Fold these 2 entries.
Entry 1:
Amino acid sequence: KQEVTQIPAALSVPEGENLVLNCSFTDSAIYNLQWFRQDPGKGLTSLLLIQSSQREQTSGRLNASLDKSSGRSTLYIAASQPGDSATYLCAASNYGGATNKLIFGTGTLLAVQP
Amino acid sequence: NAGVTQTPKFRVLKTGQSMTLLCAQDMNHEYMYWYRQDPGMGLRLIHYSVGEGTTAKGEVPDGYNVSRLKKQNFLLGLESAAPSQTSVYFCASRMGSRTNQPQHFGDGTRLSIL
């Protein structure tokens, strides 16, 4: 059974710092892995999706990597800004095709201090 | 460009009451999902649908029923609400089965059962 863990649960950094958020998963036979952002009282916004055949994906200041052999994914945020403050969730799917059931971690709450 | 819309946004019920949560998507997506989010447990899949007229059980289906009579709508029903069903409910949709297609989420329904 797939389990997804995100450590730390909370992180506080000063503005401008580069940072890495960690996501670990137990079953390396994943189909894809998604990183989401959740603002307080809001839904989830998809940031990046890494397919099983890929090693990383980039969007603006965000870079996500995937290492199936070690069961790890990281989300790198460059030059952090106060607007990056949110909860970041990773979710792994071991199901392809129509199902694509996602198993979520409990998230990392990021606070970027001005 | 509404995306995924959930109705209602908030609701308070008494134990034993019934209600239906509505999810509507305007992206012509084939697949739809219902999750619940609880503190410390992440998001967990309740039910999902791979097309109009089809539904399937997820990780935590007990106490819920679903229907997908129209492609754009996915309904989640609670027949006899229990305090354990107090949660934030999220609906998501996905275009198709390709590996690079992410799930898109609504803003959630916050449900309290007294």
Entry 2:
Amino acid sequence: KAGVTQTPRYLIKTRGQQVTLSCSPISGHRSVSWYQQTPGQGLQFLFEYFSETQRNKGNFPGRFSGRQFSNSRSEMNVSTLELGDSALYLCASSLGTPSSGANVLTFGAGSRLTVL
Amino acid sequence: AQSVTQLGSHVSVSEGALVLLRCNYSSSVPPYLFWYVQYPNQGLQLLLKYTSAATLVKGINGFEAEFKKSETSFHLTKPSAHMSDAAEYFCAVSNSGNTPLVFGKGTRLSVIA
């Protein structure tokens, strides 16, 4: 059974550019969550999607956006990149609905974004 | 809102020694608690979870954690450390109120030969 696949694994952008990251969840998983991981802030929740609807959103500026497609694949976009956006972006999928706190998240390996 | 505090950003133990990683949580409702491990250049992998069944939870790779409501703690232990246990460990909390999983800052475990 394939795991959570994130592409690209590594990318370098310059300030002001935009970036799109992709996440393919485990087959059958309908919930996808995104987290930003940095050395200083740790893991911070970005957003969660279920059945193509955003169910939760973290405390990030509007430059961060996402969407989910009918096949549960998800993308996140960051516009007008800033140096502080350099991070590992982790996607996770789960089988249950967002209202179940017992959901186990299965993480991808992440997309490491460097902004110069 | 729930939160997690992991005491010690870095813990170093000798091979064969006891591993103890501390986690305290804050939650207004009975929580679900998790420990995840992250190896270099990888995503997070679930070690174990507590969902209000037995208070002592056994996970993979010989790890276990005990839920102590009176102390609001969920410490992770392993009797004997292996070199392969060197990684970063994250404690996380959730509840049933349609809120996302909240992670602690993580504890990096080093194992010395």
